[in-house]
Amino acid sequence: MIDDIDSNTPMATDAEAMPTTSGHMMHPNDPENPQNWPFLRKLHVSAAAFGYTFTLLFGATCYTTGLAGIMEEFDVSMTKAIAGYSLYIWGIFFAPIVSPHITEKFGRNIPYIACTLGLSFFTLGAGYSRTFTQLAVCRFFAGFFGGPNAVQIEGTFADVWPALYTLTYYSFLTCASYFGAAVGAIVGYNVIPSEDWRWTQYLTLMVALAALLLGTGAPETYGRRVMVIQARRAGRTISLPPAPTGVTFAEMARHTVVNPIIMLASQPLVTMITLYLALNFGVLFSWFISVPVVVTTVYGFTPHMGGDAFSTALGGMVVGAIFTIIIDQISTRMLVKKNLKGGMFDIEYRLISAIIGACLIFASIFWIGWTAKPTVSFYSPIVGNGFYVVGSAMNLIAFISYLFDAYPPQGTLSALTSAACGRIAFAGIIPMVIITAFTNLTGAWALSVFGFIALAFLPFPIILLIFGKRLRQGSSFYNKNHTTPLTSLTMGEMHKMEEMT
């Protein structure tokens, strides 16, 4: 822990403080800079962040395994029961807006614990609900209070791991959300058929407790907060520049409310990425509603077997992450070797994975839609679902890691907020209408609608690969003097990469 470090540890003065490759204000040689921590300490804080985010998504999808019991107990329709799922996701919608400001005030550790406790409190309330209204309200606030954990994990990984490998470490942190969602459904379907639906909430509480235990003793990673702790321990005051997310309420609102809306409407780069990720997540989170319905009605699966159908999602996430990491490592080494003298290259190379992912998303939607029928083996749509997750993961990892460094810090914050809110909003909307669409259009044509939209969006990553740099540099949110960790390598990083190549 930070407090275990000798109080005589050198601390950067204001004059010495300078950004490191991760955007820290801490001196790059400061041993308390999270970038300089021992590997096991980095691994601990990363695992803790993983656990908190895993819990949040586990709670989202585990609920869907108790829909039949909720409908029966509260005498509500399928659509209304699904609302408890969507409301949880819509609670998470506010996380990208408020999380940056919470971090500036409290760092990362305190919000992780407080948010997990808040999620647990309202999850417990949902488990003891006596009316559907009570259940719906508790589900919304469980997502609202737990949501910041899904945002904090990105900052935690950026705090401790080298920025040169942004796309690689984002692959690992993305697993937290995908694994949590898939395991929530698998575990739920293996427990709920023989138990009360309320166990969907009790199971989430157990996972939350495990996450809190895993996070015990994890040190603070946010650079500004670490510097405050250093100064307090040394008995001195420290003067830090104004928080980049804003100091006044008006400044905060501008960076995480007003500017994200402006960028969504005026920046083609942000518009394309937000729209594509909205489609990606809308379809992805609708699987937790539609897949069990399809495999039980078309193939006669039991609820237990329906849950096992999500095992391909776990495999798909692993494959997607591995492919993305391999592509990133090969591309980075080739580019560094090619530009070794200047150390300059563009971040658009990160979009290679997005192009492959877009093709898989488009193809797998039609694959699933037109093979989920009694005359075709049930393996076909289930495997197709796995391929969708491969494409979904590659798409998300590439787009978000690209936005990380597309603009200067404040522009990046607004762009990421826009993309996050867009995909979360549609992750809640599509599940609400998916069963109605399947009923009115049939599953094949309902999914074909999404397939044709995916086809229309297919050129987006290709356009950004070719014209992304021009779009970024022509933006009013771009600073011509802005350099990113991947376009301005230190000499040490250059030599390291030269040895690797």
Question: What can you tell me about this protein's structure?
Answer:
This protein has 501 residues and is an all-alpha fold. Helix content is 72%, strand content 0%. It has 19 helices and no strands. The radius of gyration is 23 Å and the shape is globular. The two termini are 36 Å apart. Mean pLDDT is 87; it is low at 1-24 and 485-501.
Number of strands: 0
Question: Number of helical runs?
Answer: 19
Strand content: under 5%
User: What low-confidence regions span 5 or more consecutive residues with pLDDT below 50?
Assistant: 1-24, 485-501
Query: What structural class do the secondary elements suggest?
Result: mainly alpha
Overall geometric form: globular
User: Largest sheet at a glance?
Assistant: none
End-to-end distance: 36 Å
Mean model confidence by pLDDT: 87
Rg (C-alpha, Å): 23 Å
Q: What fraction, in percent, of the residue positions are helical?
A: over 70%
Run of helices and strands: HHHHHHHHHHHHHHHHHHH
In brief:
It contains 19 helices and no strands.
Sum up the structure in keywords:
single chain, 501 residues, mainly alpha, 19 helices, 0% strand, disordered N terminus, disordered C terminus
Helix and strand arrangement:
Layout: H1 39-62, H2 67-74, H3 78-92, H4 95-106, H5 109-127, H6 132-146, H7 148-160, H8 166-191, H9 199-214, H10 223-234, H11 249-266, H12 268-297, H13 303-308, H14 311-338, H15 352-371, H16 379-404, H17 409-457, H18 460-473, H19 491-500
Helix pairs in contact: 1-5, 1-7, 1-8, 1-9, 2-3, 3-6, 3-17, 4-7, 4-11, 4-17, 5-6, 5-9, 7-8, 8-14, 8-16, 11-12, 11-17, 12-16, 12-17, 12-18, 14-16, 15-16, 15-17, 15-18
